[in-house]
Amino acid sequence: MVQPVIGRERERAALRDAVRDVASGGSALVIDGEAGIGKSSLVADLLEYAKTRDVRAITTTGTLAESAEPYAALHMLLYPLRGGIVDLPAPQRRALDVAFGVATGIQPSPLLAGLAALTLLSDAAAGRPLLVVAEDLHWMDASSEWAIRMMARRVGEDPVVIVMTTRDTDMVETPGIRRLHLGPLDESAADELLDGISGAPTGQARRDLVLRAEGNPLALHELGRSAAVVDRIRERPVVGRVEQEFAARYTELDQSVRLAILAVALSGGTSAEEAARVAARAIGRFPSPDWTEQASASSLLEWVPPRAIRFRHPLVQSAVLLVTSPSERTAVLRSLVLEHQDDPARTIWWRAELATGHDDPLADEIVALGDGRTAMSDPFVASRAYERAAELTSDVARRVERRIVAAELAGLSGRTSEAALLVQRARDEAPRGLLAARAAWVAETLPTGRTGLAVGDLGPALHAVSDMQAAGGIEHATDALLHLAAIAWDHTAEADPGDPMLVVVEALSLPEDDPRALLLAARTEPVARGDRVRDLALAAAPAAHDEASAWLLGYALNLVGDIDTARVLLDRALASMRARGELRTFPQALMGTSMTTYLSGDVARARVLAEQAASLGRDLGDAGFSAAARCGLAWFDALEGEYPDAERIAGGTEAGAQVLRSSAMRATLLGATGSAHLLAGRAADALEPLRRLFDPDDDAYNPSFAVLTSHDYVDAALESGNRTAAEQRLADLEQLHARWHAPMVRAALDHARTALLPDDELEAAWATLQHERWPIPYLQARALLRLGRRLRRGNRSATARAVLHAALDLFESMPAPTWEERTRDALRATGERMPTDGQRSIELLTPQELRVCTLAAQGLSNRAIGEHLFVSPRTVGAHLYAAFQKLGVSSRQQLPAVLAPASGGVTAPTASRARPTHATD
Q: How far is 558 from 538, CA to CA, in rounded Å?
């Protein structure tokens, strides 16, 4: 029978409201608070309520014993839905089959497993709403926790409520997940709880108990049951007092019973019979047949039908482990190893704990475990494995090597302090040469806040790379330098880190056409070597079918200002990373592809990619990268006239603030500010932030962003009456283009030349422009808009209208709504009648709705679109339904025609808007 919930009316109502309203949309909540504060009681009450609402419930619980087992908790959660796995898209089906041991292979990343689980939940909820309960996240295996949190952020459109519990009260607030923090019960609620306990103290003894229990329900319940409560309570934190009470009950039992209970604590999943055998092997005699009843009477264990046993509360397990003597623990561990001697995978951590001194065979076995966890993107367990393997390794060089790997993996899992300790131990013991250099590199790349990278100085990291190269570690040095090249954009305060990097790059002596060499050349010398890099990368592009080559070549082309081929290659790499659920490079690839996609003219998709990057940043808990992604979104917001808010973008974190001090992020914010000024009619104010980007003496100098924002600077200069500044910018671009023939530079140059044409050359310019396709459509549209306005002011309205319609077509194809409206205003000024009663229907779509419709128009199913955008199929259906209403269509087959760029004018909604019938498939 479920115990009544006392003193939690607000939280109980919030949870019940979510379940009651689940049919109208999903939600996610996390209940946090210290041990014994009442999280499980709220969940039990909610599960009973769900039954009355015909809401199906599935549950899982993190356990200490299974915290190192990948996907253990997710497997438990999805087991009741396993019949639906066969209907998942092939990559998702394969991911869950491997994760749950149905098929062999490399364990999937949490990203891919989480997406598969999300689709499975969405499918199941289509028939009956779901309540998903995930208790004790703090003990859950890392892969399951990551996947569950990812799902929680994405169930808004599905009839699914996800409720999580955790003791972690310091967690960062997460958009899309409502936090319910449980504090202590007040005195009235504490009294009410004690009134329901037989034999609870009264009078002064009760007041003393309430005071010492500090509002913790478990403390009140357990200490209130004890006749000797006053004697047992010590001046300890309330959770410690409850543990002390459980420990006292445990120590009063017979040793054979204690060892059986200890077997349950250490194994995490044993039966009563097995626990008795383990105790007998450890002590030489079996516990009495009623040992489980004794443990139950002491409120330590409870039966779970039909034959399982478990601890009554997690604090019982921690109390047992705390009070157990080393000799008893060792005896039970040895017994467990013998009990499961045919299952070395299960006993590996027990054997690792029992090992004393060096044990190289066992160390090699643990390293193999670590390699497997690394392959499945589980750096937490992998780092633990390498750390323990290092301690068991006799050879100094191999021991240092394993500590270095452990430190790298610990850093990837967010355990920065532990990583710093591991790498320091490696540095203390490392022989001079390659291992010492590798240890120095890892130390420099950890986000401790005390490294050169933390303050934008690449020097120490480059020195470590140079030392690796000098010691013969060419591959290690190359991999490190590639990593540095990939992160330098948001780590260095220098716009062009080429000079210090160049020396190290040249020392590697890589073949000139090696994709790695091309990326490094593009990073270090984008202007001086940009043309050569572009030629070699374009020559290699047709054969770049694998993910690595596509990423390296696409990123290199992106850096040297190519657009079309860069986008093709980056899209190819991104699709492969997405299918694999890759996590280390994928977020960076999303950001790079977002900018290239914007330059190629697809602003809607570019924004969606940046939004996906921001979402992944939240999934990964990476405050710095999240800030970088929000900075990218601010670029797109500025196209609609919204000023960037640096404080909001930083997210209130030091990591976010540091990222915004990097050259690329400062340039992004300055460019966005200039663009917003221009749209606000403050052309003179736009000049200063944009000027800083191309002034070599300014600390905001950034040659690439200076090119990307030249159109805004030229337009702002002309609109503020400063033609001289615009002409100087044109001269600068001509000088740059003489050395760097990148399409990006050429587009900026063409815009400036068109903007500064004399009046008598405008019509001739249009005769040429109407047959051209610029590599950056947005710049071409801006050039046409200015050209059309000048023609209109010269009383050449007919030609002006043709030019402005061409500009409008380009803006609509992106889309860029604010610039579209400006172009329509210019058309009205020519005398053309343009509707003024609202936007085109396509402009009413959100970026995500537009992207979903675009993919649907290409023939993709809801499931395929969900895989592409990391949302559930039902969320796709909801976006399509909303879009159909806005577009005035009723089927997917109508989308290609509606989404095609209009020839000018407004696409009016149909008179009758029937309920869409093909939003789902």
A: 12
166-171: long-range pairs with CB below 8 Å, 24+ = 166/30, 166/31, 166/32, 166/136, 166/137, 166/138, 167/32, 167/33, 167/34, 167/35, 167/136, 167/138, 168/32, 168/137, 168/138, 169/32, 169/33, 169/34, 171/30, 171/32
Pairing, β 301-304 against β 56-61? unpaired
Q: How many residues does the chain have?
A: 921
φ, ψ of residue 829 to 5 degrees: the values are: -65, -20
State pLDDT tens for residues 182-223. Answer: 998 888 888 888 888 777 777 777 777 777 777 888 877 777
Kindly report the number of other CB atoms within 10 A of residue 170's CB atom: 5
* Distance separating alpha carbons of residues 475 and 467, to the nearest angstrom: 13
Tokens of 416: 């920065």
User: What average pLDDT does the segment 908-916 reach?
Assistant: 32
Of the pLDDT bands very low, low, confident and very high (cuts 50, 70, 90), residue 584 is confident
Q: How confident is the model at residue 835 (pLDDT cuts 50, 70, 90)?
A: low
For residue 531, pLDDT beyond 90 = yes
CB of 381 within 8 A of CB of 373?
Answer: yes
Joined together, the tokens standing for residue 793 give 């002011």
Is pLDDT of 507 > 60?
A: yes
> Which residues lie below 8 Å from residue 862, measured CB to CB, with a gap of 6+?
856, 873, 874, 876, 877, 880, 920, 921
Distance CA 608, CA 593 (A): 11
Residue 182: phi, psi to the nearest 5? Answer: -95, 115
